[in-house]
Design brief:
7-stranded mixed beta sheet; 404 residues; alpha/beta; 16% strand; 2 domains; Aspartate Aminotransferase, domain 1; 4-stranded mixed beta sheet; transferase; binds pyridoxal-5'-phosphate
């Protein structure tokens, strides 16, 4: 039997046997990749329409990023922040410039960037705004996804993410996403920050109502509250702009960045803000052994340079229109809703037809990898190097899956 000669089944079995089941991956075992394409252990090829949840915006093994990593591996990989290394200043200066902010604070994972933003906002609240000790509060949105630490899941509204992980960290108020009046009503003298995803990725690429983000900006400014934009998934070219906030000309006080900042090679995250905000931290108050390490900085500096040209943002905006047109053509033919910004789409499948998981399994069988989120929603986020023909191919495969 041909099936007996395939390497995938035993690799899937072993992966399940020896790991905690905190994920439910598609049964595909990838062994190599280039650009927008993946190859599995049995030589089958797949078009990547997830891009590592936007960590692979520049595609797999982008030559400039791989070269930077190789060169750095041969020179210096880690110093810790006890010493300064020669890749550090360039990275921080160029990322700060890309963000239009004075300073950056590098970390590793997205969750660490969120934790950093929370700590900075609280300290700013006590030291600059004058909030009474222990009273600082942060407003967040229903349906948020900001990571998996105990503090972050404390203000999650997803029971899978939150249940049985208490006791929970106090100091957060949840308001409905997109409801400016509710947000404004929740603000009081102890509010130090509003923490939002400008587009809610995990929730299914939920776009904010027009005017919401500018409204949040105005309300924050009027009430001396920091606006923290979690652009970990939405930022760095994904939506056709450097930052999703830019679509409505909104500039937050803090950007939280991650995922694509590491070029799909190393985990790199960062917080960018002006000196009156990030300047509240003193030595010993925050840090990370690997944060801002030489390998991370070498790769991430090249990421920032790729973005500084604007080419990826333009490509994402242009190709996003093609993706939108293709997906909107499937409305009423198995799709009940389509939300697109740049090369980022959330599509809701008619639940009577199939679940998102089933759709992704059927797409996989047709050589396209995507990932379901809640219920019958799937998210399409191909690497920004995808070609127009490849977008048409992905849409055609989805059409075939929906047609059964
Ligand atoms: C908006 C957002 N914030 C934070 C995170 C957490 O990032 P990480 O998984 O690198 O900790 C994610 C991850 O999906 C995210 O989408």
């Amino acid at each position: 039997m041909i099936e007996d000669m395939l390497r995938t089944p035993s690799a899937v079995r072993d992966a399940e046997r020896y790991t905690a089941h905190n994920y439910h991956p598609l049964p595909v075992v990838i062994s190599s990749a280039e650009g927008a394409w993946l190859t599995d252990v049995d030589g089958r090829r797949y078009l990547d329409c997830l891009a590592g949840y936007s960590a692979l915006n520049f595609g797999h093994r982008h030559p400039t990023l791989v070269r930077a990593a190789h060169e750095q591996l041969d020179r210096l990989t880690l110093t810790s922040r006890a010493f300064i290394h020669d890749q550090f200043a360039d990275f921080c200066r160029e990322l700060a410039a890309l963000c239009g902010k004075d300073l950056v604070l590098p970390m590793n994972t997205g969750a660490e960037a969120v934790e950093t933003g929370i700590k900075v906002a609280r300290k700013w609240g006590y030291q600059v705004k004058g909030v009474a000790p222990g009273q600082a509060n942060i407003i967040v949105a229903d349906g948020n996804f900001h990571g998996r630490t105990t503090t972050i899941v404390s203000f999650s509204t997803d029971s899978d993410a939150r249940a049985d992980f208490g006791p929970y960290t106090p100091g957060f108020t949840v308001v409905p996403y997109g409801d400016l009046a509710a947000l404004e009503a929740a603000i009081d003298g102890n509010t130090v920050a509003v923490l939002l995803e400008p587009i809610q990725g995990e929730q299914g690429v939920v776009l904010p109502p027009a005017g919401y983000l500018p409204g949040v900006r105005r309300v924050c400014t009027e009430n001396d509250v920091l606006f923290i934009a979690d652009e970990i998934q939405s930022g760095l070219g994904r939506t056709g702009r450097t930052f999703a906030c830019e679509h409505e000309d909104v500039v937050p006080d803090l950007y939280l960045l991650g995922k694509a900042l590491g070029g799909g090679i190393v985990p790199v995250s960062a917080v960018a803000a002006d000196a009156d905000v990030l300047g509240v931290l003193r030595p010993g108050q925050h840090g990370s052994t690997f944060g801002g390490n030489p390998l991370a900085c070498a790769v991430a500096t090249e990421v920032v340079r790729l973005l500084a040209t604007g080419d990826f943002q333009r490509r994402s905006a242009e190709l996003g229109e093609r993706l939108r047109a293709g997906l909107e053509g499937l409305l009423g033919k198995g799709l009940v809703a389509v939300r697109v910004r740049g090369l980022w789409a959330g599509v809701d499948i008619d639940p009577a037809l199939m679940t998102g998981r089933q759709a992704c399994e059927r797409l996989m069988a047709r050589g396209v990898l995507a990932k379901d989120t809640h219920g019958s929603t799937i998210r399409l986020a191909p690497p920004l190097v995808i070609t127009p023909d490849e977008i048409d191919h992905a849409v055609a495969q989805l059409a075939a899956v929906l047609a059964g």
